[in-house]
Each structure stands twice: as C-alpha cells, then as structure tokens.
Here is the input.
Amino acid sequence: MYKILMVLFTYLAFNTSPLLSRSDTGSTDKTIDLTIQLDEKSLLNAYITDFYPTTNFRNDGDFAAVTWKTSTDTIYIGRSLFKIDLSVIPKNVTITSAQLYLNHNSTPVHYGGSGHHKDGGSNACYIQRITQKWDTDSVTWSNQPDVSSENVIILNSSTSDDQNYIVDITAVLNDMLMNPSNNFGFMMRLQTESPIVALGFSSGSCANYNERPILQISYTMQ
Here is the structure.
C-alpha cells in the first residue's frame, strides 16, 4: 500500500526519461498528463557512506538513508544524493499535479535484508536541499556538499518493511521551474542516525526496472 508523505516544503528537479504515457485532455486549457519512469539520465544519484569515506558510488541502485552495523559491530552511516532534471517539462507551464512514486528496494546492497528497517527506532528521514554543485562521478562522504536546514521534506517512518511511498511535489516542481539555476538537488538522510535503521527505496539505476521511481505530472500551458 502506498502512503502519502508529509511534505513541509521543498524543491525537486529532473532529466529526459522513458515516457510510459502522455495524453492531452483536449480541454481549452490543454492539460497534458505525463507518466515518466525515472532512470540514470533523468535521476542523477549517488550513495555516500562514512564506512568508505573516499569511495564514489555513482548511480547506485540504492536510494537509501541508513545507519547499520557490520558483522564486527562497526557502525556506519549512509546517505543518498539525487537530482531530477526538469528539461522534460516545457517552459511557461503550470503544473497542476505531480506525484513521485518511490518503491521499496527488495535487493539493497548497502545494508542487510530488504526494504525498510526500524530495529533501532524510527526511520523517518529528511530530504534537504543541496546548496552547492556536486558531481555524481566524484562525490563521496568526505567531500559531500552542504545542505540547507530550511524547506525540508519530511518522510514519515515506515509502517512495514515493504511499504511504498507517494510524495506530492506539485508546489515544489512549480517553484523549481521558476528558479532552475538554484537546482543542486537533494540529500536524503535519517532524522536520527543511530543503528539499526534504514529507509530504503530503489533508485533510477536499480537493476529491477519495475522498482524504479515513477513521476506522474499534469500541467497546463500558461
């Protein structure tokens, strides 16, 4: 079952990707509906962890926020960076609806088990706006970009290991279209980074195509 997340405020962005569907309602305001499967081109992402502080995990299959333990009880933290390019959306439009579908990861790489975990408590997350440029080919834990503490998205703690999420990002996409030069993407991290917890989704680089995120948009021409 999908659960609608509580969104306090944010900005989000994205790049061209396979269109699963596109339709024109035929009304006078020309409402266009798009369903887009996000992939490596449309959803740039990277995973960073203090366990490998100088290792780059570009286009990682895990879109996750993690605090975990190794078999020798070494605690490590993992965060995810992502950026969606907005070029697929024409200029001078008003987005009337935008829903981001996130699917739990059935085969994560950076932590044990599948999906989400709350062994150590809540796995609620922040999605914070990144405030400077970063490169998917070189970003690591050691050189991770700064983030803003304002306009944060709150992802509520999961209610089951295999819970999928829907995020209403209508307002944030409209804002991002008006300010594209300020789009540096986002970082997802746990609100409390203590073990053992994980909120784990599949990214646009996930090997299982069916688990990749989907963006559904409706917009009208201004």
